[in-house]
Specification:
The structure holds 3 protein chains of 3 kinds. Chain A is built from 17 helices and 15 strands. Chain A is of the alpha/beta class. Chain A folds into 2 domains: 172 residues, D-Maltodextrin-Binding Protein, domain 2, CATH 3.40.190.10; 196 residues, Periplasmic binding protein-like II (D-Maltodextrin-Binding Protein, domain 2), CATH 3.40.190.10. In chain A, the strands form 5 sheets. A 5-stranded mixed beta sheet of chain A has the order 2-1-3-14-6. Chain A has a 4-stranded mixed beta sheet with strand order 8-11-7-12. Chain A has a two-stranded antiparallel sheet with strand order 4-5. By secondary structure, chain B is mainly alpha-helical. Chain B has 14 helices and 2 strands. In chain B, helix 4 crosses helix 14, helix 6 crosses helix 9 and helix 11 packs antiparallel against helix 14. In chain B, 48% of the residues are buried. By secondary structure, chain C is an all-alpha fold. The chains are: A alpha/beta, B mainly alpha, C mainly alpha. At the A-C interface, helix 1, helix 2, strand 2, helix 4 and helix 11 of A face helix 2, helix 4, helix 6, helix 7 and helix 10 of C.
Chain lengths: 414, 309, 274
């Protein structure tokens, strides 16, 4: 009968608490004095003080109002957003952070409320691709929040031992890789760690050679991967990968994480976001630095993928004006400067400084702003193409042609 | 003989009346209140074109059976279905066979080992699925996985840097291992509880009569366990057919292709990832029908038990 | 006899080692230093264990609050569902009534629905009744998932109890209710325990509905809390994740250890074998 008493205890002890929790929870629906803001956990762990400062300003400008910030994860925040959009009626967030590759689909579906550009600081000089990712049919729907580019994180001690300096061109870098390999001939060591299907890196090569992914010609999307320039870029990528990376040809850049391999001492340099330097392990923190990835033409950086986030106001919000005010507070010049200090790229060109991250952003590329672009990413079209090219299953021309046709048909869906 | 049958009928006759309805009323109420609207919603939007735009407008465009038509004419759907059926069969048979063996093992070990083993099973059971996937992936990754290390050290071959996720077959095999491992605790503990309900005196009597343990198992234990075995099998079929988290996370989104789709992943990718909710609803309902067909044999047998007399 | 038992014991221990290895790996990693975690050669047992990951995990925001939320939700769900499911299982296993086949179909059918499809419509319904971002909304949702298989499983256990026992008691003059209490309930002990353990674990580890329905971090469950360790696009702290996972597994194991004797009791009482 011990079991029964346990059950009884459980039930009595918590039913009271449950009732209390229920009644307090039931009145949680948007009352008149708080707005709900959905930010990603990057803000919670990276710059909580910047968020707090914006909340402070919002509160002092709107007495009686507070901003309730709820942190989301990239994996399921869109599922949650879809559920709140379906329910409508003020149940969802008033401000939502969206990745810059996610916005177009939602803007095309009418998920966001239009905003007034002039309300936001530095809107005349917003970073090109971020601004593009927040505009649809000429109207502004999402405000640029911050960006991040791709840089090379490297082991200064290994470079010194191999007698090489920061390379100025791609060809130089490839030659340096050979020297690094000679000096560190252990199994699985990569002079430059790049995951085989890391399309962010591969497309950088494509854009460096003047190629592209897709372009809009008289209302229809046309694939560009099979063009002469793109093929040159893909060939350069294959050569570079073969010479410098011992990563798997078929797995992506999170299996394993490049910085984990770096921390194991198996990597001399790796190409990725600038925050990679956070996680290189205690042993190598002192001998780690960053430089801008060189392109194949001397003096030109390789274009890096400009990832970033925008802030939007869902149409289901019942506090649209206040939401816009909060966004203005969070993307004000002072707020952006604070974000910059934390290692991010601020949202406007006039604010750009001279860190490696920001210098790399001077030459950048972005994905086609099509509402079906997410389907191309989710369908792993580019990843499969790279795996086929690197393993030699298909020739570069064949793989690129099929991927290009595939992308065009997906993007041209109604 | 005659009197016992009369008694049994008396028991049965007492069943008519409002008592059974009162007993099932709470369960029916809860299910109807909560799932009533969602089911109606699913059926309704499966007959509409219902994407993100329509979701926001709360209004879809009626297109009749076109969603179903498109799914049933999709080659990928049929290939995925076959693959999932084979996958389910493998998972369920492994789970039930190994589960039965382990449950029997629990009955013949000494008390301390029994507590150890059943606590171990509960430890396995209590691991959140997502964490289990992470640990499993870690143990089997080609870079520094424990599995490769142990296999190489044991001299079975050179497995260093062996990629266990290279082909769809090996990917799904890894997923099978993970799922069976995670499913065993429930099956073993439930079967063990079932074995515990077998009245000891029946088995004693059989032993006294000189019957071998195997005969006693087959003639006494299995018939009494039949309802539970059928239930576990049908539940396993239903769950393994619709499993999502383990394959999706273990294989990884970037390696999911139509070549290694399982039904639930197909549903997720085609319906929800592409935010074509109408199509997703159609696939959900089709999956419901398919699982019903697959498990009908077991379900019918189960319903028939206890309806006799 | 004793030698045979030793043989079985040895096999039992071997099975234990193989089954529990991933859990062992998780727990031992929780105690490892960071460089041991990612090193190329695995460290089996950390010789210089650290509890830094555990302190890190406990100090993450809302840990204790989320544990409390999980306990509330799970205890309430399990308690209500076991009672309701037992009643319904008795009806199915011991009574013949019209509409019974329909009820069976309903119970089985619910479990065949892929859950992914239900997220959005369920959210819409709950939002209408202000049950979003509330523990009660989650309890209601979990009840609908736990009830069907609980009814189904308990019915199976009930059918395994020979009717003769109840009939003999009835003949001896006890009432229906008396039969219930004195004969059925005790024999159902193992079955009730197994089902409640399963209900406990399923609701404790459930993620997606808790994630979608609960927005305030102060209201979330511990599985959602856990997701903040690996949900970021940036660095995943493996040591902390393993420590946090170990912590979340503890209540389940405690619950089981408290109730597992009931299962064993039935067996040892029935089989007095050498």
């Amino acid at each position: 009968m011990k079991r029964r008493s346990i059950v009884a205890l459980c039930v009595t002890a918590v039913l009271a608490a449950a009732i209390a929790a229920t009644t307090s929870g039931a009145t949680q629906k948007a009352t008149g004095n708080s707005i709900t803001v959905w930010l990603q956990t990057d803000a919670q762990s990276g710059w909580p003080d910047v968020v707090a400062a914006a909340n402070q300003k919002f509160q002092s400008d709107h007495p009686g109002w507070t901003a309730n910030v709820q942190y989301q994860s990239w994996g399921d925040h869109l599922q949650k957003l879809d559920a709140t959009l379906a329910a409508g009626g003020g149940n969802g967030p008033d401000v939502v952070e969206m990745g810059d590759t996610e916005t177009t689909k939602y803007m095309a579906a009418g998920a966001f409320a239009p905003l007034t550009k002039s309300q936001f600081d530095n809107s005349a000089t917003w970073l090109g691709s971020l601004a593009k990712s927040g505009t649809y049919s000429g109207k502004l729907y999402a405000v640029p929040y911050y960006a991040g580019s791709r840089v090379v994180t490297y082991r200064t001690d290994l470079f010194k031992k191999a007698g090489i300096k920061v390379p100025a061109t791609l060809a130089q870098y490839q030659a340096d890789a050979k020297k690094l390999l000679a000096k560190n001939n252990k199994k699985g060591f990569s002079p430059v760690y790049i995951a085989g299907t890391d399309w962010y890196v591969a497309m950088s090569f494509v854009f460096d050679y003047g190629g592209g992914i897709a372009t809009r010609v008289s209302g229809q999307w046309k694939g560009l991967l099979a063009s002469k320039n793109s093929i040159a870029g893909l060939t350069a990528y294959k050569n570079f990968f073969t010479a410098a990376s011992r990563a798997s040809k078929t797995t992506d850049e999170t299996h394993p994480n490049p910085y984990d391999v770096y921390a194991q001492g198996q990597v001399a340099s790796m190409l990725g976001p600038s925050w990679f330097s956070c996680c290189v392990g205690k042993k190598y923190t002192g001998s780690t630095a960053q430089f801008v990835m060189p392109g194949h033409v001397k003096g030109q950086a390789m274009p890096g993928f400009l990832g970033g986030s925008d802030l939007a106001v869902p149409v289901t919000s019942s506090n649209k004006a206040l939401a816009a005010d909060w966004i203005a507070d969070f993307t004000s010049t002072s707020s952006e400067r604070a974000l910059q200090k934390k290692g991010n790229i601020p949202n406007a060109t006039n604010l750009l400084g001279n860190t490696v991250n920001e210098r790399a952003a001077s030459r950048s590329w972005f994905v086609p702003t099509a509402k079906h672009w997410v389907d191309v990413e989710n369908g792993n079209i580019l990843r499969n193409m790279l795996a086929q090219i690197l393993t030699g299953k298909l020739s570069i021309k064949q793989a690129a042609q099929s991927a290009s046709d595939n992308i065009a048909s997906v993007l041209n869906q109604p | 003989m005659e009197t016992s049958r009369r008694r049994r009928r008396a028991w049965g006759r007492a069943g008519r009346g409002s008592v059974p309805y009162l007993l099932i009323a709470p369960v029916v109420a809860v299910i109807a209140v909560i799932l009533g609207y969602p089911l109606y919603y699913l059926v309704r939007i499966s007959l509409q074109q219902y994407g993100l735009f329509e979701l926001i407008q709360h209004k879809g465009i009626a297109i009749g059976l076109r969603n179903y038509h498109s799914v049933l004419h999709d080659q990928v759907f049929w290939h995925t279905l076959v693959r999932t059926v084979v996958f389910t069969a493998a998972n369920v048979s492994l789970t039930m066979v190994i589960g039965m063996l382990l449950a029997l093992l629990l009955t013949v070990v000494s008390a301390p080992v029994r507590v150890l083993l059943s606590s171990g099973l509960v430890l396995v059971w209590s691991m959140p699925v997502v964490v289990a996937v992470q640990v499993w992936y870690w143990m089997t990754n080609y870079e520094n996985g424990v599995l490769n290390y142990v296999l190489t050290k044991l001299g079975i071959g050179d497995y260093s840097q062996h990629d266990w996720y290279g082909t769809p077959f090996s990917q799904l095999s890894m997923v099978t291992l993970l799922i069976v491992w995670g499913a065993l605790p429930f099956v073993v503990i439930t079967l063990y509880a079932g074995l515990a309900q077998v009245p000891g005196d029946l088995l004693e009597a059989a032993a006294v009569d000189g019957a071998a343990p195997w005969r006693a198992f087959r003639d006494i234990t299995v018939p009494l366990l039949k309802p539970i075995l059928l239930i576990l099998t049908s539940l396993s079929i239903i769950w393994d057919f619709g499993v999502f988290t383990q394959p999706y996370l273990l294989i990884g989104q970037s390696k999911i292709t139509s070549g290694n789709y399982l039904m639930s992943i197909y549903l997720f990718e085609e319906g929800y990832f592409k935010t074509d909710y109408g199509r997703g609803a159609a696939i959900s309902l089709l999956m419901l029908v398919i699982v019903a067909v697959l498990s009908v044999v077991y379900v019918r047998r189960m319903v028939r038990i206890g309806v006799s007399e | 006899m004793r030698v045979r038992r030793l043989g079985w014991d040895a096999i039992g221990i071997a099975v234990f080692v193989v089954m529990v290895f991933p859990v062992f790996w998780m727990i031992s990693t929780a105690f490892k230093q960071d460089d041991q975690i990612i090193s190329l050669t695995p460290t089996w047992i950390p010789l210089h264990p650290t509890i830094a990951h555990f302190t890190n995990a406990i100090h993450r925001p809302y840990f204790w609050q989320d544990v409390e939320n999980s306990l509330i939700i799970v205890c309430v769900t399990v308690a209500i569902s076991i009672v309701l499911a037992f009643l319904a299982a008795v009806a199915l296993a011991r009574y013949g009534f019209s509409g019974r086949k329909l009820f069976v179909l309903l119970v089985i059918g619910i479990q065949m629905l892929p859950q992914a499809g239900l997220i959005i419509p369920l959210y819409v319904v709950l939002a209408k009744y202000h049950q979003v971002n509330a523990l009660s909304g989650v309890v209601i949702t979990y009840l609908t998932f736990v009830l069907p298989f609980s009814v189904w499983t308990l019915r199976g256990f009930l059918l395994g109890i020979p009717k003769e026992l109840e009939e003999a008691a009835m003949v001896d003059g006890s009432t229906r209710l008396g039969v219930f209490m004195k004969i059925l309930l005790p024999l159902m002990g193992p079955g009730l325990v197994a089902t409640s353990v399963f209900a406990f674990i399923t609701t404790w580890n459930e993620y997606i509905f808790a994630r979608v329905l609960l927005n305030d971090q102060s209201k979330q469950t511990v599985t959602v809390w856990l997701s903040y360790f690996y949900g970021t696009s940036r660095h995943t702290d493996w040591g902390a994740l393993m420590a946090a996972s170990t912590l979340t597994a503890i209540p389940v194991v405690v619950f089981f250890l408290l109730v597992q004797r009931k299962i064993a009791f039935g067996l040892t009482a029935g089989a007095v074998r050498g």
